[in-house]
Automatic annotation (TrEMBL):
Pfam families on file: DLH (PF01738)
Molecular-function GO terms, alphabetical: hydrolase activity
InterPro entries linked to this entry: AB_hydrolase_fold (IPR029058), Dienelactn_hydro (IPR002925)
Designated name of the protein: Putative cytoplasm protein
SUPFAM superfamilies: alpha/beta-Hydrolases (SSF53474)
Residue ranges constituting the Dienelactone hydrolase domain according to the UniProt record: 31-249
Amino acid sequence: MASNPPGRCCTLGIKHEGTPSGELIKVGAYDAYLAKPPADKAHTGAGILFLPDVIGIWQNSKLMADQFAANGYVTLIIDTFNGDPLPLGPRPAGFNIHEWIAKGSDGKNPHTTEAVDPIVVEGIKYLREVHGVTKLGAVGYCFGAKYVVRHYKSGIQVGYVAHPSFVEEDELAAITGPFAISAAETDTIFPAEKRHKSEEILKAAGVPYQINLFSGVEHGFAVRGDPNVKISRFAREQAFLQAVTWFDNWLL
């Protein structure tokens, strides 16, 4: 693997303050959150598919989608968990995240590639057909990173991920466009050896790539970092800026 499977750290963090300004919608059968850019700042034909961590569509991801929209990109978060995201915070005794991925909370709603891939494709189709997106970027956080990597084949042109999980080496090797990563210094899911291996794979793939490593932070910092801790706030803000700058350069 280019990154390890999700673990306990994937569900811990801080809920951020703010009032989301987008709207909850349906994309096919799936819940979604749509954030539109101001008319005078919109990048014509450019959009971002936001593939979230296991917390799904919630306060922090909504605020981040709003920020991407404020920078000119129509942004869609789609519920890749089909109504079954995990709540923020420690899991109850006996919870196994790998069983949840395999079967879902009720044993009948898996979050495997076979289940998630069609949801991602539905999101891409919506952005293209409803919002006229011809320049498609995607962001993926933790769990969502795997599906950014997997769906260059479905039309993603430029990708950005933070603290990725579950990415297979052959999936990363198959990407066909620019790709950027924000990584945490302390991360058992995407540790140093996985970063270095990812660098080798990206170099061999021959696409533009960037890997930024942030000190003093842990897995999940780009979405769930504590804004009251200076080093965490700085890393989170810079990771977001890395993403926007990446799209401004390679997507437009």
